[in-house]
Amino acid sequence: MLDTTEQSDPAPPQHEPRPRRDEPRGCLFALSQPPLMIFLAVIGTLLLMASLHDLLLL
After folding, report:
1. How big, in percent rounded to 5, are the helix, strand and coil portions of the chain?
2. What's the gap between Cα 17 and its chain centre?
3. What's the pLDDT tens digit per position in 9-35?
4. C-alpha–C-alpha distance, residues 38 and 3, integer Å
5. Cα dist. 20→17, 24, 25, 33, 58 in Å?
6. Within the chain, where are the H helices?
7. Number of C-alpha atoms within 13 angstroms, CB side, residue 9?
8. In angstroms, what CA-CA distances link 33 with 9, 21, 24, 41, 56?
């Protein structure tokens, strides 16, 4: 049998917190995505143009 104790990785120190990978991502993560921000900017621009049209030209 081979001795594999020297090849294994050392255990991480117990005082350092490990990052949680199963934590759910919230709304701010979704808003930071570029396609969503472009979509929201286009919709906002269309709403702004419609409201300015109603206020100034009608």
Report:
1. 50, 0, 50
2. 22
3. 666 666 766 666 777 777 777 777 888
4. 57
5. 9, 10, 11, 21, 55
6. 27-31, 34-56
7. 3
8. 36, 19, 16, 12, 34
Indicate if the pLDDT at residue 7 is higher than 70: no
Q: What distance in Å separates the CA atoms of residue 1 and residue 31, rounded to the nearest whole number?
A: 55
Residue 18: both structure tokens together: 């490990």
pTM score? 0.50
What is the identity of the amino acid at 38? I
| Half-sphere exposure for 38 (CA within 13 Å, toward CB) | 3
Assign residue 16 a region (left: φ > 0; alpha: ψ between -120 and 50; beta: otherwise): beta
